[in-house]
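<backbone_tokenisation>
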Amino acid sequence: MTTYEMLEKHINSKKRDGVFNDLLKETLKFKLDVYMLANRISESQYNALIKLME
């Protein structure tokens, strides 16, 4: 499973469980920034994950 797939699964599970709040969103955005800077996810994957969090 890729980093992108794990992040997508994590976001969807938190949304499904009803625990996706502003604090979690900010924490995940910070982590996504780090993953993109470390080339673990591409810019298009980053944008897709940010859109998923809206």
